[in-house]
Design a protein that fits this description.
By secondary structure, this protein is mainly α. Helix content is 75%, strand content 0%.
């Protein structure tokens, strides 16, 4: 594996630990600060929307000026955001920090709105025939880091002895700060070269390579982006506020939720590695369809679970199937364009998910506030079912 790819993966692993802790505890922290469900949902939506707007600029520019500067800048912003959240719980400052730092959103170790630059750089570090393997392995590392962070989300319960109330959550931002410092070290050591690993590829392609698509670039990207938007809105309805839903539905705290989510992320990391075997048998498209279809069934079953332990088992299995297919989906989308347009492709991919995803938390929060805890899952199921239908049609025609 090339040195640059290893360094980028190391940065992803370090970054993902803080993300995993906050994906469990940030909404619970706001709840402990007496924020309403609607206020929490609107903050998540604002954070997702800000990230989507930033993504518009990053991907295409990374094709021209490189990715390294963007990623170093992103970690600098993370340091500032974590420092603010460590020092104050004042709503205005905490809102600013949450939007800058994308707190609680979770990205499996990805660099938020700067993820297109990261993906483009990664794709240039290896031959395209290796993308399925590299992106699955990269996803697995991020998920393992998320699992470690989710386990650390139990810290507020331990620190409550010495830090009263919501203050027990604040040391979690130190994890984010330390992770960003480590990321800066990895990224500084990485070298960005205009030489693309794909230029040395052999003409023979293996089954794990993305299928070729011969159409206008914008037509392809916008069509697939529209399909992705269905997935993004469905994710936004349930994903960002999942820990909060468990708290409202079953009355459990961060220790129980964090432990269960740690198992979910670890299972997803394992499934991502298993996905390497699946893509050799079914190809990238077939692997995504099979894993996501099973995940859809579990999504529809989850809200009807009468017990926390059963709901968590379903959540763990669903997360493993959905997140385990991320590597395949990234490789597919980057394979739709030539190597000098991969930042653009990654941008459209990210934006088409993040922009509609930004709407989801506010809608879900309205249902939560009305004590309608099942409805968001049903809406998400319809949206993700439509996504899978159009996804298979798109690639069947190519």
């Amino acid at each position: 594996m090339p040195r640059n790819a290893r360094l980028l993966m190391g940065a992803r692993a370090a970054r993902s630990v803080g993300q995993g802790a906050l994906v469990v505890d940030f909404a619970l922290y706001l709840h402990a600060l007496h924020w309403t469900a609607l206020s929490i949902g609107v903050l998540y939506s604002a954070s997702l929307l800000a990230g989507a707007l930033a993504t518009l600029l990053v991907g295409p520019l990374s094709d021209r000026v490189g990715a390294k500067g963007f990623l170093l800048g992103y970690e600098g912003v993370q340091l500032i955001a974590a420092s603010i959240a460590l020092s104050t719980a004042q709503p205005g400052w905490l809102t600013l920090a949450a939007i800058l730092g994308a707190f609680g959103r979770g990205a499996n170790g990805g660099a938020g709105p700067f993820a297109p630059a990261e993906q483009s750089w990664m794709s240039r570090s290896v031959a395209s025939a290796q993308w399925g393997e590299i992106f699955h392995f990269n996803t697995s590392l991020g998920l393992l880091g998320m699992a470690a962070g989710a386990a650390l989300a139990a810290l507020p319960g331990i620190l409550a002895v010495v830090l009263p109330g919501a203050a027990a959550y604040r040391p979690l931002f130190l994890i984010v700060l330390l992770g960003s410092l480590i990321c800066l070290l990895f990224l500084h050591a990485a070298e960005e070269s205009p030489t693309d690993a794909a230029s040395a590829e052999q003409s023979e392609q293996v089954q794990t390579a993305p299928p070729a698509v011969r159409k206008s670039i914008w037509r392809v990207l916008l069509t697939f982006g529209s399909i992705n938007a269905l997935n993004g809105l469905g994710i936004g309805m349930v994903g960002p506020l999942m820990a909060y839903w468990f708290h409202l539905r079953f009355g459990v705290g961060p220790a129980a939720i964090g432990g269960a989510m740690a198992l979910a992320f670890a299972s997803a990391a394992l499934m991502s590695l298993i996905g390497l075997r699946l893509i050799r048998r079914f190809g990238l498209v077939g692997t995504v369809l099979r894993m996501r279809l099973l995940g859809l069934v579990l999504l529809l079953v989850l809200p009807f679970s009468p017990f926390f332990w059963l709901a968590m088992l379903i959540f763990i299995a669903r997360g493993a199937l959905n997140q385990g297919s991320i590597g395949s989906r990234q490789a597919l989308f980057l394979g739709l364009v030539d190597r000098d347009k991969r930042g653009l492709a990654a941008t459209v991919n990210s934006l088409s998910i993040q922009a509609p995803r930004a709407i989801g938390p506010s809608i879900a929060a309205l249902f939560f506030q009305s004590e309608m805890l099942t409805t968001p899952f049903l809406i998400a199921g319809v949206l993700q079912g439509a996504y899978l239908y159009f996804f298979q049609r798109f690639f069947r025609k190519e």
